[in-house]
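Supplementary Note 3. Input sequence used for the single-chain structure prediction.
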Amino acid sequence: MTTLTICIVTAFVIGYLCIALESLTKVNKAAIALLMCVVCWTLLMMNPSAYYPEVAGDGVIHHIAEVIEHHLGDAAGTLFFLMGAMTIVEIVDSNGGFNFVRDALKTRSKKKLMWRVAFMTFFLSAILDNLTTSIVMIMVLRKLVQSREERLLYAALIIIAANSGGAFSPIGDVTTIMLWIKGVITTQGVITEIFIPSLVSMIIPAAIISLSLKGKFDKEQNLPKADVSQFTKVQRDIIFWLGVGGLVFVPIFKTLTHLPPFMGILLVLGILWTTTEIFHYNTSEDDTMAKRVSDIMTKIDLSTIMFFLGILMAVAVLQEIGVLTAMGEGLNEAFSGNYYLINGIIGVLSSIVDNVPLVAGCMGMYPVAAEGAMAVDGIFWQLLAYCAGVGGSMLIIGSAAGVVVMGLEKITFGWYLKRITWIAFVGYLCGILIYWVERMLLF
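The predicted structure, written as discrete structure tokens, is reproduced below.
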């Protein structure tokens, strides 16, 4: 490892620690992430030829510009998807679309509410994706739990349930989508063999967290209903089904058109936006289109978007200088043949850095075999789907769901590390154990 590479990794680690200690430094994590991103890329530019020896002379500068644009394009797809999903959920929420979902979950029992939220999040994330599901469930949760301390526990469980639910579905998580498109896992294989381990990885933490929830809510614990008198119940239901049904349609749209997922999100947003404007046109309320846009956009947490951008682009530097690939190769050499241990460590690493480049690196390092652990639906690939997805729950910035919930509920890294990390880790290990038992019984 060269001195420059060490400097880049050091800058990333220092930035990561500052993000982790946000509650102590009082500096917004988005600011640190953006600084970390720029510093890492600037360090790379000090000697770019060391990383791109195949590019001669001044051409290396142009090449790096293309590399940055490539990574920025990938990050932009994620960011536009996030912004579109957040806006859709805000439109549905502001027009009372989640009222009947809230009423369906509503109960005075704290433990009953926890289990209802956990299972709904788990299965919804498999149909939608863990990112969108987390946004929807946090919006509903805000209407059900007033106490911030209690709501943080529910929010943490939403992160765990969303990541666990996304792991057993080919469209539930970015990493499973990557493996599914690559052809190393099949829909039937991942659902039938990863479903029970994923379910266990959610149930165990839920059972542990439930021990902290005792008694019942006060009769007046629910937040007051939003004033949606300008819309009828039929109109509110239409808005809900257009929003949530549209989010379900996004993977189908991608399959049919082969366009990026954020294009499907923009389609749904356009349709939903137009529908609400038509509904407002027929009301007596003096509400212009410009006002509606500004009102909704002010509710989008821009700092979360900036944090996402900084993290994704900083991790892209580590990918470019070969650190992630070297890490994967080191694991392969150290634990050759023990795919449970290799993937278990990859899962832990996915809670520290973004799981997308980790999975991408693994797909590049390990060729698909005709039979054995590396075959389609083999132990390695299925475990990779489980570990990369569920492992992200161990740290709050280890998954897209965690980052979004962190921004929406202002959860600190330290609180999650102290209260939730060990619980998520226990569920993670139990899921791996269940998968091992399944393999022993089936094969």
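The radius of gyration is 22 Å. The CA atoms of residues 326 and 361 lie 9 Å apart.
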